[in-house]
Write a structure and sequence with these properties.
The protein has 316 residues and is an alpha/beta fold. 41% of the residues lie in helices and 16% in strands. The protein has a 9-stranded mixed beta sheet, sandwiched between helices. A two-stranded antiparallel ribbon has the order 10-11.
């Protein structure tokens, strides 16, 4: 299986032209820690930029003349169409590898391909412990993710059946819409099973998901990756980059700073003392504004359902 895995599995790095400044740090670390993953074909999902790094087998297949006009869904579907293998290891551009991928780690990834070849009903196997509630049946080191579970489809590190990932996308969608409305749509349309790594199991590709993650009330990690809202998240990258001789001018992209609201969210007691009374006072003092905001949010949800869910459910 290990000998011919390059004919079955392609690494897909999901990024865009505007994030090309992340590619050097990403591939410096990937080249250092990636182990046998470095032997696999690599496809970069971006609109028009091209990139090479050492002897890594990297392909940038798209060549859009107006990159800013291309929606994420359309760009990603076009990239997947150029992939010739049946399986995809999906990674984001700020999943900076921070620990060596050992033979054991690599074998766990290869095992995912083997499980999917043996069982055509498996569509994807997530390599991070995303859920600790509402888990389905156990399978090896994985749980089955039940339809209706939040973020059943997501952009975390995952081995996908190419056809399943492709069919989950629509041209006009953004990544955030895909993780939200795509899940609503695909709970109905996608029949393949999705598995997720059990909590507490060693992640085959360590990029800080558990290290920097904080669990919310729902039990789902709220991770801090290399980039937050378009800016560098220094607790995730600064020390890592310095230890590996990577120089980055953080002033160009800027550094992400957590505001008071974000800090309060991460502290349940402080939030209950401050946020809850504030909301009650706000609701009493300005009920009309609260009603308007609720109506606006409801209207936006309905429009997105009409745009991103209902047409495709009826179409298929």
């Amino acid at each position: 299986m290990r000998k011919d895995v390059g004919k079955k599995l392609t690494i897909l790095i999901c990024t865009c032209d505007k994030y090309k400044d992340l590619w050097d740090p990403f591939f410096i670390l990937f080249n250092k820690f990636g182990g046998d993953l470095r032997k696999l074909p690599i496809v970069i999902n971006t609109e028009s930029e091209k990139y090479k790094f050492n002897n890594l087998n990297i392909v940038c297949s798209n060549n859009y003349k107006n990159p800013e006009e291309v929606a994420w869904g359309k760009c990603l579907k076009s990239t997947i169409e150029h992939i010739t293998t049946d399986y995809i290891l999906f990674l984001l551009d700020d999943f900076f590898v921070k620990r060596a991928v050992t033979n054991e780690d690599y074998n766990k990834i290869i095992d995912c391909v083997r499980y999917m070849e043996e069982d055509a009903s498996i569509g994807g196997m997530s390599l991070v412990p995303l859920y600790i509630k509402d888990n389905g049946k156990e399978f090896r080191d994985f749980y089955l993710v039940n339809p209706g579970t939040p973020y059943r489809l997501n952009a975390q590190a995952c081995v996908w059946r190419k056809e399943t990932l492709y069919n989950s996308l629509i041209d006009i969608e953004s990544p955030w819409e895909w993780e939200l409305y795509g899940n609503i749509r695909n709970d109905i349309l996608i029949k393949e099973k999705i598995y997720v790594l059990k909590d507490g199991k060693r992640e085959p590709i360590c990029y800080g998901y558990s290290d920097y993650g904080q669990r919310g009330e729902s039990g789902i990690y709220a991770p801090r990756f290399g980039v937050m809202k378009g800016k560098w998240y220094l607790p995730s990258v600064k020390k890592l980059f310095e230890e590996n001789g990577i120089f980055v001018d953080y002033s160009i992209r800027g550094a992400y700073k957590e505001g008071f609201k974000t800090q309060v969210k991460r502290n349940r007691l402080l939030r209950n003392l401050i946020v809850c009374p504030y909301r009650k006072i706000r609701n009493v003092l300005n009920p009309d504004m609260v009603k308007l905001m609720e109506e606006k949010n409801q209207k936006e949800r309905e429009l997105n359902m009409e745009r991103l869910v209902l047409p495709y459910v009826y179409m298929r």
